[in-house]
Amino acid sequence: MPHIDLPNLPGIRGPMSFRPETARPLNQLAEVLLRGESTLSRADRELIATYVSSQNNCHYCQSIHGAIAAAHLGGDEELVRAVKADFENATVTPKIKSLLTIAGKVQKGGKNVLEEDIQAARKEGATDLEIHDTVLIAAAFCMFNRYVDGLGTWQPQDEAMYRDRGKMVAEKGYVALNLGTPAPIGQGV
Amino acid sequence: MPHIQLPENLPGISAGFAFRPETAAPMRALAHALLYTAGRETDLSSRDRELIAAFVSSRNECRFCKMSHGAAATHLNGGDSSLLAAVCSDFQNADVSAKMKALLAIAAAVQIDGKNVTTELVAKAREEGASDLEIHDTVLIAAAFSMYNRYVDGLATMQPQDENAYREMGVRLAENGYIPPAKP
Predict the structure, then answer these.
(1) Which one of A18, A181, B150, B158 has the fewest beta carbons within 10 angstroms of its own beta carbon?
(2) A132/B16 touch (CB, cutoff 8 Å), yes or no
(3) Which of residues 100-139 of B touch A (CB under 8 A)?
(4) Rounded percentage of chain B residues whose pLDDT exceeds 90
């Protein structure tokens, strides 16, 4: 049971529907960070979001962003699992590994990011903008995760629901899907 | 020295905002909606919201955010900074309402992990008269500052040591909010 009286929608969609004034900037931030123009692929950015959400142990966020990442990867759910479990041995580039290291440190606290972490990412070819966006994706998911868990939102266990919604988000994006015409209550994830 | 090449001489989050205007816009809009639009006369006023923001930033040990939002709270408290100090050091004995104490307890739980918000903490806030919207906004303010603090510290932005540097910032945020005026 959610802590407050939320519309019957899973995860962050309950409070976003409850409070449209804050849902707007939240979706716009996710759209720019995860789907906007970038030298990091959408799949890589969703993997960073998924990894941070798994470190925060937020079931809804790691499931839905993992599903979105997999949709961007042509359905490769194995890679998503590998990144969450042990990214150093996952089949991602050394640059993404160095950015995941930075994201993991931000998750624990911004001051954990050291100059040597930045240098390691630079050595693998990361740009200032890529480092900036990695720090902000990790920071933003420390918000989204706390928002979703802190209100005790409904977080379904059904993987197929996340898979379906993940494909839709990967295709249409956060702003179009969440700030457009609202879906009927109880439909989809 | 910041970790990346940020615009020089801009303190704290303003350097990150200037570096990346595309993310700055929604981040400013979120702070505006959560902290400013409530105004001074509502039950969970801008002063109370700034206090929650400064309190969470203090727990996250983010100097820039604690000082700037603390300065905004102090300005909205008629210039008296003792309330901010009391809330940050021991809010249960600070001169705030019982409802505000219950909301600060929720914010403290969120700062650590959203799952730490218990039904007991929420029931206590309700008992003291908190509405669903106030509980929602408290959770989201605490969550949002778990983001802003990590952003400011994670990029190693320049954070002035001089307290006076924050006073003017606080007045500006408290009076004008977080969305910069449109350029003519």
Answers:
(1) A181
(2) yes
(3) 106, 109-110, 113-115, 117, 119, 122, 132-133, 135-137, 139
(4) 93
Structural domain includes residue B181: no
- Using only C-alpha atoms, chain A has a radius of gyration, in whole angstroms, of 16
What is the tally of structural domains in chain B?
1
**Whole-angstrom distance, CA of residue A145 vs CA of residue A53:** 6
Most confidently predicted of A175-184, B71-80, B158-167: B71-80
B33 to chain A, any CB pair closer than 8 A? The answer is: yes
Domains in chain A: boundaries: 23-176
Structure-token pair, residue A156: 């379904």
pLDDT tens, position by position, A93-115: 999 999 999 999 999 999 999 99
Cβ proximity of B40 and B46 under 8 Å: yes
**Chosen from A1, A4, A112, A141 to mutate, greatest number of chain B CBs within 10 A:** A4
Question: pTM value?
Answer: 0.96
- The answer on pLDDT for B181 being more than 50 is yes
- In this predicted complex, what is the ipTM? 0.97
The answer to whether the Cβ–Cβ distance between B143 and A36 falls below 8 Å is no
Domain covering A23-176, topology: AhpD-like (1.20.1290)
d(CA A68, CA A70): 5
B 63-102 → A contacts, CB under 8 A: none
Integer Cα distance of A2 and A133 in angstroms: 31
